[in-house]
Description:
By secondary structure, this protein is an alpha/beta fold. It folds into 3 domains: about 25-225, 2-enoyl-CoA Hydratase, Chain A, domain 1 (Alpha-Beta Complex); about 235-360; about 370-430, CATH 2.40.50.140. It contains 15 helices and 16 strands. The strands form 4 sheets. It has a 6-stranded parallel beta sheet with strand order 8-5-3-2-1-11, covered by helices on one side. A hairpin with a 2-residue loop joins strand 12 and strand 13 (about 385-390). Helix 10 packs antiparallel against helix 11.
Amino acid sequence: MLLAVGVGLALLGPLAPAGAQTGGDRPTVLVTTVDDPITPVIADHLADVVAAAEDEGHAAVVVELDTPGGLDTAMRDIVQTFLRADVPVVVYVTPSGARAASAGALIAWSAHVVAMAPGTTIGAATPVDLEGGEVGDKVVNDAAAYARAVAEERGRDVEVAEEAVTEGRALSASEAVDEGVADLIAVDRPELLQVLDGTRVELPDGTTVTLETAGAEVVERDMSAFRRLLQWLADPNLAFLFLSLGTLAIIYELATPGIGVGGGLGAVLLVLALFSLAVLPVDAVGLVFLVVAAVLFVVEVLAPGIGAAAALGAVSLALAGVFLFRDEGPGVSLSLAAVVPVVVVVGGAVVLAGRLAAHARTAPSVLGPEALVGRQVTVARADGSSGQAFVEGAWWAVSGDEPLAPGDEVRIRDVDGLRLLVDRLPTEDTKDTEDAVGVEEGDTQP
């Protein structure tokens, strides 16, 4: 009986979640790093990390943070995740020189414990738009109220949190601890776990947990490769670039149809742009301007003129860049230095595409039977004035005004269905005969 129980436990052992605390084992801490702007991708990742820590029984979650800020909606999702977490959450601003700015400050204050490495800063949470400009008082007041609520929920200094929003106040690590918006300073991760040991935190259900992190085993949980790709794409500059170049590639495919390289490249760029738009705050007005720009560019290609349609399309594209992304926060910003060159290049390229399309429509045909007119071919078989010739990999019926013979060189003057109308070219013997006849006729002249 005991042997059977032992075998069963041995088989069930590998099924225990990785990093979970088991009887007799030292506690584990789940650690993840966020060193990018705050986006919905980061919010989803942190939600998964907290859920994994709860399911796997880790003693705490440590988020090593270094961010300039990010999107307001993503920040609020993360704050809600941390406030509802049934496992202690520690935000550690690290390494030295790192910052928890703007949205990062509110994310840090929503954690149970805020730790900072020497030489780091926190604060400067005044909202700005995607171009880095100031926003209205309504937005600032809303952000200030939210900062006060988060600080109050975690027992932090409410006035300092509000000043970080209304006055853009930023604090060093020591100032943050002195002002009551950070809990401790730790040089590195091992020191952090040592100092955290014995800290008591209260969970949403009212229970108090004492952290046992001294000598805890660290389990790192990084973002998946797919999420890293999405995070890279969550950049308004890339989204605008992919939208513009993808549209341009498809327009070139329409202007000069070929083997589909332009269309394929354009489709790939537009798909990447859709991934970007899926994780960015998009405004419908910007999408309308983008569609108008695409329509005007197509008009320029189909009916090229003095470039008026291309110029209006370029203006619409520039307006799309201005209005496409909602004003939600710093760190994820659309640079006008990127918009202007893209607009100029795309507008000029569309004008060129229109000229290429017009030239292609008026140029002589280089495909189909008409392209054979003027070609010189050799008659392979003949019967009177008709015969056959092998042209461009196929047998064609040929017909002339004179009798034809195998080996005759003929020139195609027209195509009638599947028949080539030809003129026989003079041979050397024919030329000699014509010359002789001309001499004889000349001798008989008076």
